[in-house]
Amino acid sequence: MLMAATGVSACNDRFHAPIVPASEGIGAIEPIFVATQRKPDPTGWFSPARSEETRYLSLDVSIPPGHRKGRIENGFDHPDPQKDFTIAARQDIAGRQAFRAALSRKLRQSPPDRREIVLYIHGYNNSFFDGVFRTAQIMHDFDVPATAVHFSWPSATHPLGYTYDRDSVLFARDGLEQLLYDLRAVGARRIVVAAHSLGTMLLMETLRQIEIARPGWSKQALGGIILISPDLDIEVFRMQAKRIAGLPQPFAIFTSSRDKALALSARINGAGARLGNLTDPTALGDFPVTIIDVSQFNASNSHFTVGTSPALISLLSDSKTLDVAFQGDRAGRSGLLPGTVLSVRNATQMILSPDLLIHKM
Questions:
Q1: The dihedral of CA 72, 27, 121, 78: what is its sign?
Q2: Residue 263's closest CA among 284, 252, 241, 278?
Q3: Closest Cα to residue 146, out of 98, 187, 190?
Q4: 215 in the Ramachandran plot: left (φ > 0), alpha (ψ -120 to 50) or beta?
Q5: What sign does the CA torsion over 259, 123, 343, 323 have?
Q6: What is the pLDDT of residue 37?
Q7: Whether residue 341 has pLDDT greater than 90
Q8: Which of 15, 147, 232, 261 could form a Cys-Cys staple with 275, CB 3.0–4.6 A?
Q9: Are strands 28-40 and 147-152 parallel, antiparallel or unpaired?
């Protein structure tokens, strides 16, 4: 049941992927910087085991020519670059200072309007390659004009590893905090952090931790937060948000009442709902957040509708729609999508529908 809810198959080897240099000339290349607290495995890649040391590398991921939006075509340990996501190149980076230097150099070499960073934090039951390929897929499908960074925390990569993953979230807070400081130091015009599932707990715990040490840092340093299908208790989120003196803006929360994995998580945790399947925005009315309800969209993975629904990707790829979603009534733009916006004190809820694609055309 858990495996069905998370959309994960047990039959494939998700821990290994060969480097295929020939794929450089076949698919579209998405370069990704990676920081990980996973221990290396005997193959030289990274396992579910925890490491107190953060390791750094850069990867070129090849997106196959026939890629369909919302999918990760994965050949696992026998990829075909014509059909599958493939690792085209790998460069290990020797330590924190070298990582900062490499990232700074990449930003300087980018056009001025592309000197932003998007940091993606994966969720529960993700292997190293699950997170890397998801980062590449998001950057490619949404055509994000930014430098991609991925934080790979030590998930058990097993449907029954939920407790291990919850503990790994606590384990990885210091590593993520250090990474956020490093991203701030490299001269990016803007830093946006997107986290999925249990990765949202890691992000919120880390922002709370930073707030204790450096009050006001998050709001000043970060140019946007996106929580995707957050596997977070609503009351816990409220306490985390209260501790942060001013949430970074914009602060978007993508929710779906059809999220099977979160429905199961709520039952396991003895709660009626998780933040990611919240339907009533009243509980978040104290906070300047935008709740984006995507329940009406069909997706291959209901726990990641944002990244697996081609219709939703098409809608959100329109910068005007994204702007409305982030700003809501607070910017006076709700009229652009009539009947889709609800305001409860400081919070705004947007209910998106495939019908809105008609407005986009």
A1: positive
A2: 278
A3: 190
A4: beta
A5: negative
A6: 99
A7: no
A8: 232
A9: parallel
Whole-angstrom Cα distance, residue 235 to residue 241? Answer: 10
Q: Where do the structural domains in the chain lie, given as residue ranges?
A: 2-277
How far, in Å, CA of 355 to CA of 358, rounded?
Answer: 6
- pTM summary value: 0.92
Q: What is the pLDDT of residues 307-319, one digit of tens each?
A: 999 999 988 887 5
Tens-digit pLDDT profile for residues 93-132: 999 999 999 999 999 999 998 999 999 999 999 999 999 9
Handedness of CA 70, 75, 77, 81 (dihedral sign): negative
How far does CA 157 lie from the centroid of its chain? 17
pLDDT value of position 354: 86
The CA distance from 75 to 81, in Å, is 9
Q: Structure tokens of 100?
A: 């900062």
Q: Which pairs count as long-range contacts for 338-343, CB under 8 Å and 24+ apart, including other chains? A: 342/281
**Number of residues that this document lists for the chain:** 361
Question: What is the per-residue burial (b if ≥16 Cβ within 10 Å, else e) of 198-213?
Answer: bbbbbbbbbbbbbbee
Q: For residue 112, give both structure tokens.
A: 């001025």
Give the C-alpha separation, 290 to 226, whole Å: 10
Question: pLDDT digit string (tens) for 166-212?
Answer: 999 999 999 999 999 999 999 999 999 999 999 999 999 999 999 99
Given phi > 0 = left and psi -120 to 50 = alpha, else beta, which region is 228? beta
Give the sheet arrangement for strand 290-293, strand by strand.
86-93, 46-63, 28-40, 147-152, 116-121, 190-196, 224-228, 251-255, 290-293, 347-351, 341-344
On the 0-12 / 13-18 / 19+ scale of CB atoms within 10 A, 234 is middle
Which burial class, exposed, middle or buried, applies to 236 when counting CB atoms under 10 A from its CB (0-12, 13-18, 19+)? middle
Closest CA to 74 of 7, 119, 25, 174: 7
